[in-house]
Write a structure and sequence with these properties.
21 helices, 7-stranded mixed β-sheet, Phenylalanyl-tRNA Synthetase, Chain B, domain 3, alpha+beta, Phenylalanyl-tRNA Synthetase, Chain B, domain 1, 6-stranded antiparallel β-sheet, OB fold (Dihydrolipoamide Acetyltransferase, E2P), 6 domains, 26% helix
């Protein structure tokens, strides 16, 4: 929102410097991103060309006599548009200008031009820094005050405000004026809304029918006749230019001026092009066609609101008018619309039509319906004043959605509870009244307050308390240390688990990814290696085809990120992402489990692992999962799985207490080809929502062992169908076995066909005494006996 300081001063007296005022507005909650100064010219005044004569020594130059009121000066000028009687910008010697050729700042000095001394300059826009135009001198309006400093006439300061979505009132000059008045303890001068009208009632010429009160809770209309469409006066063009709006004609400019002044969008219809003089506010018919003011034919949907006459739609409500009822140079009667529309409806319409506008930007923020009437009266007043129009008697005001304002109760105790400040009731009341609120004292420490008609964000007591803090100044709230005991921290288990997983994986050398929750079906299916068995949740109006639905899996996004980075790095590449996926549920909101997905692979260079160089393999991925769960205080087990997106024979289900919580394995060749990834790319995927149940618990202290360990090796011959886990479960069933490590797997000539050798290093230890060889031998024999009986194992 661009706010002109000159425009702002029409409504509120401002004595502060622009930079200081910008700081106060920013500290009150609306950031002033930039302060642009227009003007600031020294020794540049408004003059008038009194005479023009030829230059004695140059055909293309002329001598101009400039009147400054009390004196006259003769200067040399080569501009083609010199005309006697024109008001111009005259720079005396010493003025700081911009060189029209180099663009650099210069100080004007007296100079002889072809033998004639010129002690000043008639300026063009480029020399004043107003624009790049240097085709001729700047010609000012005839009413420009002679002899006045130019900076006082057209100079200005423009504040560029970053308005938050909850403050549509700050998208208006009057709204900003009320904010500034409250901050500086000043008063706001509201525009006078009186105007002359004729005897004929508007009801004789115009009728309004609102068919959808939900989408249009209020519709006001006024009528003016005898309109003379033409250029706007200088002050109106200047105000609009300061706000970044191009002047079109006086009628359209008035609607834009009032929108910027009050924050209420208006629209002007050519009354003679409205069938039967009747306005119908209705939903569009599905597929209805309307050509908007930009000359584009728009296909409308049934959920869009239109302004129509009995025959056809003539405007998209709250977004843009239609070409059929556009105000032209031949327009003589204008119907002015000032309405309130449902914010969500306007937002959806402008997004669907890809048609954002200044009007929709205000409607979709939820401006108050009470703005419609004063804004319309202001526009009618300006139409009568600037267009030579005659206003019909009365205003049509349909207000089916009217709701009486409910006062909000405020107490000093609640204000102190929230702000921590003891604020006198007199100061509370004064602050609220400075913001335009109406207050009514109930007791010595309570009052009722009603928001002003331009504020839509004041709904509950906390909103008013926030405004009190804003105006008093957040910086005035004292900083105090907590008294008493520190409150006990009860961290959210989900958050703790998420943080721990991030910390652990980062320690393993992984880098975290953050990808968009929006994706497309092709990427989802490519990552899963199969067609989706259900329809993902689709975005109604996607920004692009790449972001058309919510993800049901993290695999596609993570593998896409790996594919984008793999050609830029060498060695091992390890990524992970933690994020929600969205699984549709019939007739209900989607199920949103939090998923961890990690990938690891290696390129060109080899890694060093336990002193050996080898590429990343399945057991690296398995080790990451085991290490993760070990640090989370849980024990992972693995079972054979059959996920179509992972390679057969190189994948496993991750189990916690016989509950499947995830998958691990090498990605299938088809998936690898789809993302242009190497074959040795491994992926693990876990449901953190399920893991939370098994990882949440307190650690148990165990004393360091006092007695030494005894190690023995055990080499077994087993059937090739016997898994390592089956052997390990039996070995660890003996209490004296503290650790069992598989260190060799062999299948070959020295072992019978269908058999393989598994070699283990066993660690024995007792917490009560030092073990003897005899004790260890007995346990080892018992282990071997059980392995023989249960698995058919033999000692190698």
């Amino acid at each position: 929102m661009k706010c002109s300081l000159k425009w702002l001063r029409r409504y509120v007296d401002i004595n502060e410097q622009p930079e200081a005022l910008a700081k106060r507005i920013t500290l009150a909650g609306t950031e002033v991103a930039r302060v642009d100064v227009v003007g600031g010219w020294d020794n540049v005044f408004i003059g008038q060309i009194a005479a023009v004569g030829p230059h004695p020594n140059a055909d293309r130059l002329r001598l101009a006599t400039v009147c400054l009121g009390a004196e006259q000066m003769e200067v040399v000028c080569g501009a083609p548009n010199l005309a006697i009687g024109d008001k111009i910008a005259f720079a005396r010697a010493g003025a700081h200008l911009i060189d029209g050729h180099s663009g650099e700042k210069i100080v004007l000095k007296p100079n002889k031009i072809r033998g004639v001394l010129s002690e000043g300059m008639i300026c063009s826009e480029i020399e004043l820094g107003l624009s790049k135009n240097h085709e001729g001198i700047l010609v000012l309006p005839p009413d420009a005050p002679l002899g006045q400093k130019l900076s006082d006439y057209i100079g200005d300061v423009i504040f560029d405000l970053e308005v938050t979505p909850n403050r549509p009132d700050m998208l208006s000059i009057l709204g900003i004026a009320h904010e500034v008045a409250a901050l500086t303890d000043a008063a706001v001068r509201e525009p006078n809304l009186d105007y002359m009208c004729c005897v004929r009632s508007i009801n004789e010429s115009v009728s309004v029918e609102v068919r959808d009160a939900e989408l249009c809770p209020r519709y006001c209309a006024g009528l003016v006749t005898g309109v003379k469409v033409g250029p706007s006066p200088h002050w109106l063009k200047e105000a609009l230019a300061a706000a970044g709006i191009r002047s079109i004609n006086n009628v359209v400019d008035i609607t834009n001026f009032v929108m910027m002044e009050y924050g209420q969008p208006l629209h002007a219809f050519d009354y003679d092009h409205i069938g039967l003089g009747k306005i119908v506010v209705r939903r569009a018919a599905e597929g209805e066609i309307l050509m908007t003011l930009d000359g584009v034919e728009r296909r409308l949907g049934a959920d869009m609101l239109v302004i129509a006459d009995p025959n056809r739609a003539i405007a998209v409500a709250g977004v843009m008018g239609g070409a059929t009822s556009e105000v032209t140079d031949g327009t003589t009667s204008v119907l002015l619309e000032s309405a309130s529309f449902k914010a969500a409806s306007i937002h959806n319409t402008q997004v669907c039509l890809k048609l954002p506008s200044e009007a929709s930007a205000r409607f979709e923020r939820g401006i108050r319906a009470e703005l419609t009437l004063p804004a319309l009266r202001r526009a009618l007043q300006l139409m009568v004043e600037l267009c030579g129009a005659t206003a019909a008697d009365g205003i049509i005001d349909h207000y089916p959605g009217k709701k009486e304002a409910v006062p909000i109760s405020l107490t000093t105790a609640e204000i102190k509870r929230i702000l921590g400040l003891d604020i006198p009731m007199s100061q509370i009341e004064k602050t609220l009244m400075s913001l335009g609120c109406q207050t009514k004292s109930m007791t010595d420490d309570s009052l009722e307050v009603t928001p002003p008609y331009w504020r839509s964000d004041l709904r509950i007591d906390a909103d008013f308390i926030e405004d009190i803090a804003r105006i008093i100044g957040y910086e005035s709230i004292p900083s105090r240390l907590l008294s008493g005991e520190m409150p006990q921290q009860n961290p959210e288990p989900k958050l703790v688990l998420r943080q721990n997983v991030r910390r652990i994986l980062a320690g393993f050398g992984f880098q975290e990814l953050i990808t968009y929750a929006l994706t497309n079906r092709s990427t989802l299916e490519k990552g899963l290696g199969k067609e989706l068995p259900f329809e993902p949740l689709r975005v109604e109006h996607p920004m692009s085809s790449e972001e058309e639905c919510l993800r049901t899996s993290l695999r596609g996004n993570v593998l896409s990120a790996l594919s984008a980075n793999i050609h830029r790095e060498e060695g091992s590449i390890c990524f992970f992402e933690i994020g929600h996926v969205y699984l549709p549920k019939t007739g209900d909101l989607p199920h949103e489990p939090e998923i961890l997905c990690g990938v690891l692979t290696s390129t060109g260079a080899e890694k060093v692992w336990l002193g050996r160089k080898e590429p990343i393999d399945f057991f690296d991925a398995k080790g990451v999962v085991e290490g993760l769960f070990a640090q989370l205080g849980a024990k992972a087990e693995f079972q054979v799985s059959a996920d179509i997106g992972l390679r057969v024979g190189c994948q496993a289900s991750i189990m916690l207490q016989n509950q499947e919580v995830g998958l691990l394995g090498a990605i299938d060749h088809k998936v690898a080809q789809g993302f242009d990834l190497p074959a040795n790319t491994f992926l693990f995927e876990m449901d953190l929502t399920q893991i939370l149940t098994y990882s949440h618990g307190s650690a148990r202290y165990e004393m360091l062992p006092r007695f030494p360990v005894v190690t023995r090796d055990l080499a077994l011959i087993l059937g090739s169908d016997i898994s390592h886990k089956q052997v390990l479960d039996i070995i660890k069933g003996f209490s004296l076995v503290k650790k069992a490590t598989l260190f060799d797997v062999y299948a070959g000539k020295q072992v019978s066909q269908g058999k393989r050798s598994l070699a283990y290093s066993l660690t024995f230890q007792s917490s009560e005494h030092t073990l003897t060889d005899a004790e260890v031998d007995r346990v080892l024999d018992a282990i071997l006996h059980k392995l023989q009986s249960a698995l058919g194992a033999t000692l190698r």
